[in-house]
Design goal:
The complex is a heterodimer. Chain A is of the alpha+beta class. Chain A has a single domain, classed as Clam (outer membrane lipoprotein receptor (LolB), chain A), CATH 2.50.20. In chain A, about 20% of the residues lie in helices and about 45% in strands. Chain A contains 3 helices and 13 strands; from the N terminus they run αββββββαβββββββα. In chain A, strands 6-5-4-3-2-1-13-12-11-10-9-8-7 form a 13-stranded antiparallel sheet. The termini of chain A are far apart. In chain B, the strands form 3 sheets. A 4-stranded antiparallel sheet of chain B has the order 2-5-1-6, sandwiched between helices. Chain B is elongated. The chains are: A alpha+beta, B alpha+beta. At the A-B interface, strand 6 of A face strand 4, helix 16 and helix 17 of B.
Chain lengths: ~240, ~750
């Protein structure tokens, strides 16, 4: 009798745990589907860098992305950054084009953890992340409108973050807040606002990344976006960077 | 005065109760007093060099640099690298530390397989275990001038860890944190701590150690002298109580007014010991004299107060003047505070000497002290009386000594070098020597470069200045954005030089923007950059001044688009020195003039006043002559000497003159008058001189060199002042028969 009851308890717990786990996996898959579903995108963005004394500087870039891991961008302004381009390809490839030198340089792989154009975003942050692969998740809390999930990278995942906490609205599955941790210390927060649907895809017109320690923040304003225009692979080459 | 003295003598118990009540109140405040050891807090913020220094602290991650030298047989061994890495990471998290740079985390810019790499020199822990990787890195590091001799010694046995301290944490606390955290790591390798913040920490430790070490001998010595003089317990206890109560009141007032105790103001108790005991001793001496002449206690006390009040009052006012003269002459706020609160302490000591002292004398059982009995065998009388007929010879001797001293005075060395605080062979000096021998020195200078740093022309101007600093001014271990840009250009374009266009420079900035190590070198909006370098710290004062002047001249003559300002501790020190010299001269001049005027007024005769001032003038000249002869330098502590000596030393003249005049006015013949004066006031003076000199001599046991010098010099000064006053005044009065 005792054995029977233990067995039932263990079985029930297993089912509950598994379903909880399954629940997280499902949620993450939905998140990825929503965020990473466009086949390609072309965007013009304004980056506003705000110092802790509230002084600002601006950059304007045009960026194209194909799939999850090909990205190319060029700076349109300010004057001293116009023409600088970057190309991110699978296999941790990152090329920067320096127009004054007319040269393309590879940036070493760990440099993806470095700041992108002196903003609070790193090159890594600019990439599309697949949360359902490479992360172990658990639900921290849940209410009527949203889930709060804690994601820890799996061993093979080369990310510099030890943990990411994301707030996922139940309506859209488009994360509105991501908190990044390094060594369990909260280092950055990304907030997404003005969420709209463009051609069936969700976009955030305004994204703000704040670095906790310095108080510095970067606002990324989406000025225009086009989805699924069948971008050619030719855009994602060094030759295009140099144009 | 008659009424007051009778009132005090008539109500000793009431007086004691009131004073006790005030003491308890003051004691309460005194326990809350705060100690601030940070010299930098006391530099006036209106000074441009200080403003620049503060700015470097606020905008570039800290103006104070501390160092740790890590020793091992080979810093490139896996074990050592890992330890250095552990230490570096720990320090980055330590409260009070803003930026840490070491072999394992310094950002390196290099080209590898066509890639540009901006990464820490040793990327991660596991790579440190890869011997081939480490060997490659070692060859690279030892071949690069920006690392060899800057972060690792030439013989590879020492690694330097550089810490910029955060501006918002008090530096000694930050250093304590650092030492504690490092201690907890349990690493066995030898480590040395250096740089100004650690020096200040060590000074504080020594000050506290000193205070504890010196209080007992000081007290014992004073007790001994007082007992020898008065031969009664009361004669010992009362002056000491006077001093104790006076000190408590003074510190209580400081605390109530929210004034911190600093490395200078902590001398105040010692000064009060010397001064406070003097007034009390004179009252006691007179009291015993009156008792000895047959008066009853209350009468004796009233008489003592009445007779002694004037000279003691004059003495306290002149001493007050000596201290207050600091308020006007001094650049350092803490010296001004010292002046003000010493003056307050003196005033309090005076009040207590005519209230508490007689009250206590009346309360305790007093028999007539030994004033009268030992009189006939009073040794010092014999000495003075020996001098009296030898007037001419005495004045010739005085003239010779004066001229000699005056000749020596210009040779006094000046020092604001903090290294001098530490005895040779002490840990801190050893550390400093290691840093100097292997890493270019622990004294850092900074030059703020204001201009448009997006232009290569601005960087070129910086580069020229750096060349000058290295070649002509002996600055080592120079770092700035110029070097970073050159290395970036090397990686992109193959040439180790500044780019030839502003557009190229903008491209390079794009690659390094946002890297934290750039924050130390370049302001975010690129309107300003910082050049940093090391100076050998052993430089004596003269060399530092020469260096500063040379650099300032070069900076003034630069005519390009960049404006340069020099700052850093050496500049601050030179400023400090100039101010010390000014303070000293000004306060001495002020003291002498004011004392002379006051005395003339009080004694009713300018000639008498001049006579009273001469011994102390002679004493001051001798003091500086002795300093010069013994090569003791004029520094923060000794600069106070001149005025303190005037203030305290003039007291002897005052007491002696007033008493001698009184004796002569009573109709005594000259020799008799001198004898009578010596036996009474003279005795008190000798007791006071010996107590004070003895008390200050105890300071020679200090672990801090300037305090040793200070104690020794004051003791000498008191001895000379006392002897001179008594002898010269006795001798000089003879001819006029005054």
């Amino acid at each position: 009798m005792k054995k029977f009851i233990s067995a039932v308890i263990i079985a029930s717990l297993t089912v509950i745990l598994c379903s909880a786990a399954a629940n997280v996996t499902e949620i993450l898959k939905k998140v990825d589907d929503v965020s990473n579903s466009p086949k390609d995108q072309k965007m013009t963005m304004k980056l506003i860098l705000v110092n802790k004394d509230n002084s600002e500087s601006e950059r304007e870039i045009v960026m194209m992305q194909k799939g999850a891991d090909k990205r190319v961008g060029k700076f349109l302004s300010p004057k001293d950054q116009k023409g600088i381009g970057f190309l991110s390809l699978p296999g941790n490839v990152l090329h920067i084009y320096l127009p004054a030198y007319k040269k393309i340089k590879n940036i070493a792989s760990h440099a993806k953890n470095g700041s992108f154009a002196n903003t609070d975003f790193t090159y890594e942050d600019m990439e599309m992340t697949e949360f359902s692969k490479g992360y172990e998740g658990k639900i921290l809390s849940e209410d009527d409108s949203a889930y709060v999930l804690e994601l820890k990278p799996e061993k093979e995942n080369e990310t510099s973050y030890s943990k990411i906490v994301i707030t996922v609205p139940k309506e859209t599955y488009f994360p509105v807040m991501l908190q990044f941790f390094e060594k369990d210390k909260h280092v950055k927060t990304l907030e997404r606002k003005s969420i709209e649907k463009v051609k069936n895809y969700y976009v955030a017109r305004e994204m703000t990344m704040t670095t906790i320690k310095s108080g510095h923040r970067t606002k990324m304003l989406l000025e225009s976006v086009e989805f699924d225009t069948n971008l050619s692979d030719d855009f994602f080459t060094d030759r295009y960077l140099k144009e | 005065m008659n009424r007051i003295s009778k009132m005090i003598a008539g109500n000793p118990l009431k007086v004691i109760i009131v004073i006790t009540a005030i003491t308890i109140l003051m004691g309460f405040f005194a326990t809350k007093v705060k100690i601030n050891p940070d010299i930098l807090d006391y530099l006036p913020k209106t000074d441009k060099i200080i403003q620049d220094f503060d700015r470097v602290g606020e905008e570039y991650g800290g103006s104070l640099t501390a160092f740790i030298v890590f020793e091992s047989d080979n810093v490139f061994s896996t074990e050592s690298l890992r330890k250095i890495d552990r230490i570096t990471r720990l320090l980055q998290e330590t409260e009070g530390v803003s930026i840490v740079t070491s072999l394992t985390n310094v950002m390196d810019i290099k080209e590898a397989d066509e890639s540009v790499e901006i990464a820490p020199l040793f990327e991660n822990d596991s790579l440190m275990g890869d011997t081939a990787y480490v060997n490659k890195r070692m060859k690279y590091v030892m071949g690069e001038r920006i690392y060899k001799g800057k972060l690792v010694s030439e013989d590879m046995t020492k690694a330097l860890i550089v810490m910029n301290l955060a501006d918002d944490v008090e530096q000694t606390r930050a250093c304590k944190n650092i030492k504690e955290e490092i201690g907890n790591l349990g690493i066995e390798n030898k480590m040395h701590f250096g740089g100004l913040p650690f020096f200040v920490l060590e000074i504080n430790r020594l000050i506290v150690k000193d205070l504890l070490k010196l209080i007992l001998p000081c007290a014992l010595l004073m007790i001994f002298v007082l007992f020898i003089s008065f031969r009664t317990i009361v004669g010992v206890i009362v002056p000491l109580l006077n001093v104790l109560v006076g000190t408590v009141w003074t510190i209580g007032i400081m605390s109530a007014l929210k004034v911190d105790v600093t490395i200078i103001t902590n001398i105040i108790p010692v000064v009060l010991l010397a001064v406070g005991s003097a007034y009390s001793i004179h009252v006691i001496s007179k009291f015993y004299e009156e008792l000895g002449s047959g008066k009853e206690k209350r009468e004796a006390a009233a008489e003592a107060i009445k007779e002694v009040a004037l000279p003691v009052f004059l003495a306290s006012v002149t001493t007050l003047i000596g201290f207050l003269s600091f308020v006007f002459g001094s650049y350092l706020i803490m010296i001004r505070d010292f002046g003000i609160f010493s003056a307050v302490g003196v005033a309090i000591s005076f009040i207590l000497s005519i209230t508490l002292t007689p009250a206590l004398l009346l309360t305790f059982k007093s028999k007539a002290g030994s004033n009268s009995e030992a009189g006939k065998s009073f040794f010092f009388v014999k000495i003075v009386e020996w001098f009296v007929p030898k007037r001419k010879q005495l004045f010739i001797a005085v003239a010779i000594l004066t001229l000699l001293s005056i000749a020596l005075i210009p040779r006094i060395s000046r020092s604001a070098d903090i290294m001098e605080y530490f005895k040779k062979g002490s840990d801190i000096r050893v550390s400093d020597k290691i840093i100097e021998d292997n890493f270019g020195g622990s004294t850092r200078i900074q030059i703020i470069c204001s201009g448009d740093m997006t232009k290569t022309a601005a960087l070129n101007e910086m580069w020229e200045l750096e060349r000058f600093l290295e070649d002509s001014a002996g600055v080592r271990n120079i770092s700035s954005i110029v070097d970073v840009v050159k290395r970036m250009n090397m990686v992109i374009d193959g040439k180790y030089e500044l780019p030839d266009s502003d557009e190229k420079l903008a491209n390079l900035y794009f690659l390094t923007d946002g890297e934290p190590f750039i924050d130390r070198m370049l302001k975010g909006d690129k309107s300003e950059a910082l050049i940093e370098g090391s100076l050998a710290s052993g430089m004596n004062f003269k060399k530092v001044t020469e260096f500063i002047n040379k650099v300032e001249e070069r900076l003034k003559s630069s005519s390009g688009s960049v404006a340069f300002s020099l700052t850093g501790m050496p500049s601050v020190n030179v400023k400090l020195d100039r101010s010390i010299l000014q303070s000293t001269l000004f306060s001495i001049a002020m003291s002498i003039i004011l004392v002379f005027v006051l005395l003339s007024f009080m004694l009713g005769s300018a000639r008498l006043s001049l006579k009273g001032t001469l011994p102390i003038l002679f004493t001051i000249v001798m003091l500086f002559g002795v300093m010069s002869a013994l090569r003791l330098s004029l520094d923060i502590a000794t600069c106070l000497l001149g005025s303190i000596s005037i203030g305290i030393g003039i007291d002897y003249s005052i007491h002696y003159l007033i008493r001698l005049r009184k004796e002569l006015n009573e109709g005594k013949k000259y020799k008799e008058a001198v004898h009578a004066t010596m036996m009474t006031t003279g005795r008190a003076i000798v007791t006071n001189v010996l107590t004070v000199a003895g008390g200050f001599l105890v300071l020679t046991l200090s672990s801090l060199q300037p305090i040793v010098n200070f104690g020794f010099l004051i003791a000498i000064t008191m001895l000379i002042a006392g002897a001179t006053a008594v002898i010269m005044l006795s001798v000089s009065s003879k001819e006029k028969g005054e």
